[in-house]
Design goal:
single chain, 458 residues, alpha/beta, D-Amino Acid Oxidase, Chain A, domain 2, eight-stranded mixed beta sheet, 31% helix, binds flavin-adenine dinucleotide, FAD-dependent oxidoreductase, FAD-dep_OxRdtase, oxidoreductase activity, oxidoreductase, FAD/NAD-bd_sf
Length: 458
């Protein structure tokens, strides 16, 4: 086995040319728990030709390779800078919920009206079934569990917001959500002491995310895709419609390229994706295994996906292995990622929500870069009809479930098929740019301060 290069926590996608070469995984619980990665095709060695190249070996690149092979007979080449699932795919909370981007369903109604919101919602239910089918595939073996998604109000005002959201879901979209009182949440689901009530969505599956990615990789390779790890695309030129993708071990020439690099996209990779998403850091801890007394004191009665309503929200769940996983937004720059204050923020949240766990050991702490779209909606597009270049990005922190459906649609686009719902906002336009691009990080400082005050007092 090749020895990976040490993981660099200070990597920052806004400034780095690529996310490294053959770098080790971030020290996540999932990596510890998943066992060894499946076989791959190693780094590119020598020049090669391919019909389709997918850049990025996370959920999106791997599942797109799987769908291209299974549904279109196209054997793609995946180029991954580091390891299978190295980016956000190995670092998330494993919450597979029904979220297309970051806007709530009431924001869909406000932005596009009830008809488009209803179509988006139906499209999301259809997409969710693509994800569900993947999680139920025995070869993928990602430990799916639970059915539902709990949104916990952190304040009485937030509960009023959930009541309105639930009404809209039920009455306008026909999506049967339920409101739960604080007592019901504490007695039947989870003893979060900050809870002021909750909205329970009927849909949502928890998975072991890295095992999901390993499963995608195994199936894609069995169907003929090649997965080259340790192969960052460091230079991209296009001559007579042929894309020349230079990696350290050789150049890959391809007729079509799918960009699946999400929050790890270098601004230098290609003009069509430069600065189209804002990389935002989120983090996660996993505690040591809890004792039976601690489990009883925290009222962990369910392993459902759980998120609170803060603007700087906490997402958490009680894992089947008797540990708590919880995370939130983190540093603004890569250079600040290791600042102990970010771990402290999560530890303080654990103590507020579950006082019996105050001071508990958190042997796993990691972070990753999410791809936040400037209008909070993802896109699966061929941004320029004259170029055989496609991307699926902008998941805005909700990619576990969405990436399965997005990959199926990206594979359709690359294979030249038209999409049934092509006028929906996730397909009909490229990702928007941001007019104040150079100042975005300054704005982020101000926003985080404002949001944390709002979360405290509203
Ligand atoms: C801490 C955290 C918690 C999260 N929790 C959840 C959750 O619970 N539920 C949810 O739905 N979503 C969650 N997300 C978001 C989710 O993980 C992502 O949306 C999803 O993993 C994106 O998958 P992807 O394949 O598109 O991108 P990634 O997994 O980020 O993969 C991109 C890959 O591209 C590679 N790459 C980049 N540039 C190059 C290049 N030049 N050459 C070759 N390779 C390159 C990178 O090495 C990387 O492996 C979370 C994210 C984080 C950071």
């Amino acid at each position: 086995m090749r020895t990976p290069r040490p993981y660099d926590p200070t990597y920052d996608p806004l400034y780095a040319k690529s996310p490294g070469t053959a770098t080790d995984y971030s020290p996540t619980y999932w990596r510890f728990h998943a066992g060894e990665p499946p076989a791959d095709d190693g780094p590119v060695s020598g020049d090669i030709e391919a019909d389709v190249v997918l850049i990025g070996g996370g959920f999106t690149g791997l599942a797109t390779a799987l769908f291209l092979a299974r549904e279109h007979g196209i054997k793609a080449v995946v180029l991954e800078a580091n390891q299978i699932g190295w980016g956000c795919t190995s670092r998330n909370g494993g919450q597979g919920h029904l979220a297309w981007g970051r806007l709530s369903r009431s924001q869909w109604v406000q932005k596009w009206g009830a008809d488009v919101a209803r179509r988006l919602h139906n499209n999301s239910l259809e997409g969710y079934e693509v994800f569900r089918a993947m999680t139920e595939d025995a070869e993928i073996d990602c430990e799916p569990h639970g059915e539902g998604n709990l949104l916990i109000a952190h304040s009485p005002k937030a509960m009023a917001g959930l009541e309105a959201e639930s009404r809209l879901c039920n009455e306008i979209l026909g999506y049967r959500t339920r409101l739960l009182t604080r007592d019901t949440v504490l007695n039947e689901y989870i003893g979060d002491q900050e809870c002021q009530g909750a909205m329970l969505e009927p849909v949502g599956i928890a998975v072991q995310p890295l095992k999901l990615a390993y499963g995608y990789a195994r199936v894609a390779r069995r169907l003929g895709a090649r997965i080259h790890t340790g192969s960052p695309v460091q230079n991209w030129t296009t001559v007579d419609r042929v894309h020349h993708l230079r990696t350290p071990g050789g150049t890959v020439r391809a007729k079509a390229v799918g960009i699946c690099t999400a929050g790890y996209t270098s601004p230098n990779l290609h003009k069509l994706t430069a600065y189209k998403v804002m990389p935002i850091m989120a983090n996660s801890v996993v505690t040591r295994e809890l004792t039976d007394d601690e489990i009883a004191a925290c009222g962990f009665r369910s392993t459902l996906l759980t998120t609170d309503t803060r603007k700087l929200r906490y997402y958490y769940r009680y894992l089947p292995e008797k540990r708590l996983q919880i995370g939130t937004r983190s540093a603004i720059t890569g250079g600040d990622a290791d600042n102990p204050k970010h771990l402290r923020v999560v530890q303080e949240a654990i103590a507020r929500k579950f006082p019996a766990l105050e001071g508990i050991e958190t042997p796993f702490f990691w972070h990753g870069w999410m791809d936040i779209s400037h209008d909070m909606m993802p896109r699966i597009v061929q941004p320029d009809p004259k170029q055989q270049v496609f991307y699926s990005q902008g998941y805005s922190g909700n990619g576990v479930s969405f990436s399965a459906y997005a990959s199926k649609q990206l594979a359709n686009l690359i294979a030249g098929k038209s999409l049934a719902d092509s006028d929906l906002p996730i397909f009909s336009s490229p990702l928007p740019s941001h007019p104040l691009r150079p100042l975005r990080r300054l704005g982020q400082h101000a926003l985080y301060t404002y949001f944390s005050l709002r979360d405290k007092f509203a």
